[in-house]
Amino acid sequence: MRQLPFVLLALASINPLFVNAQTAKLQEIQAEGLKTLTEPQIEALSGMKVGAQVGREDLQAGADALVRSGLFAKVVYNFRTHNDEVILTFQLVENPRIPVSYDNFPWYGDSELNEAIRKDLSFYDGTLPEAGTVVERAAKSLQDFLASKGATVQIEHTVVINPLSDGNIQQFRENGVSPRIASVEFSDPRLMESRAVQQHLPEVKGKPYSRMAIDIFLAEAIRPLYLQDGHLRAKIGPAEVRLAGNPSQKLPEAIPVYVPCQPGPVYEWKDVEWSGNQALSTITLNRTLEMKPGEPANGMKIEGGWDRVKEEYGHLGHIEAKLNAVASYDDTGHTVSYKVAISEGAVFKYNEMAITGMSLAGERLIREAWPLRTGDAFDLKVFDQFLNKLELHREGIFKELPIHYDNVGHFLQTDDAKGTVDVLLDFK
Predict the structure, then answer these.
(1) What is the per-residue pLDDT for 21?
(2) pLDDT (tens digit, 9 = 90+) per residue, 269-295?
(3) How far is Cα 3 from Cα 197, in angstroms, rounded to an integer?
(4) Which domains can be identified in the chain, with CATH numbers?
């Protein structure tokens, strides 16, 4: 859960400034702890003006405005006097920002849209916080820009997962009817000739234009093709809209999309170095990973190997085990090796099962079929196999008992203090 910022007034000593006077002239605004912003930008974001008469409430309002901006995780301020004028100092901790993405604005380049925001937010560099007044101002800037072009639309924004890389993005979207995608062309001719690609194209071709939909298509249908052939550092996209003709004429209802792709070299598997492993030996980990030196570094197989390692830990009760795999590329020999730091976590033990949406007779049969007993090390493999029986092989559990349900909701509730896990099943 994201921690909310706070404002703190810090005074080194009792300041007599506002004792006999309601306001005083603001001589200077200083800011400490800045990494990307400047003091003039802090002045603008606070809504305060150097040279203006200010009182205590104005100082607090300025600090509150910085908090509401969403740019800061922490805002502390203090003030001192000089020649009966106020010197205000903000001590700030900036929030991390995430990249901005424009989902369905095919008629305008990112540079145009970025400039529209930058006219109002001078600090804008293509990133914004997850929330706050600056995000709302950015949306308003885009809306005004489109209105100047004759389009009366509403702009929505939401934080979504970036389908092509790690982390989130701040997505802006026009709330209206988008043109459809007429065609998708790739710079890599092998993709144009690939039967697998042609089978997947209907997932986007003919659909409303959406950069997010295209990125998901690239991540799920195109990137795996490169990864399985060892192109671990392939560069895919971003997709471009290439329009020709008179821009003053009516825009087409279907638009072509072009995707630049650079496969890069094919890498071979070199080795892996494990650390933090105690419950599983290095020999077991290597055997589970199933990668051999000199073979093509199949990215999909590698990802599957990390999943199998986590499954092995789950089999031993380490259901919260985490892997941090860092690749090291040799661009001369075209090999890849990994350093994998493992955080095994505690061994969780099974505690109890809660069942909802099932008859008493059916619940009794479920509990009889469940193989773990209270105090046993929790086994994720056993849990997954049991779910498979409930969903695909019901007769093995319920026998002749007539049972009717469409799906099984399931959840594992852990208690870190006790080192236990409860199983929750909901039949619908």
Answers:
(1) 57
(2) 999 999 999 999 999 999 999 999 999
(3) 43
(4) 7-94 (3.10.20.310), 98-244+253-262 (3.10.20.310), 268-343 (3.10.20.310), 349-427 (3.10.20.310)
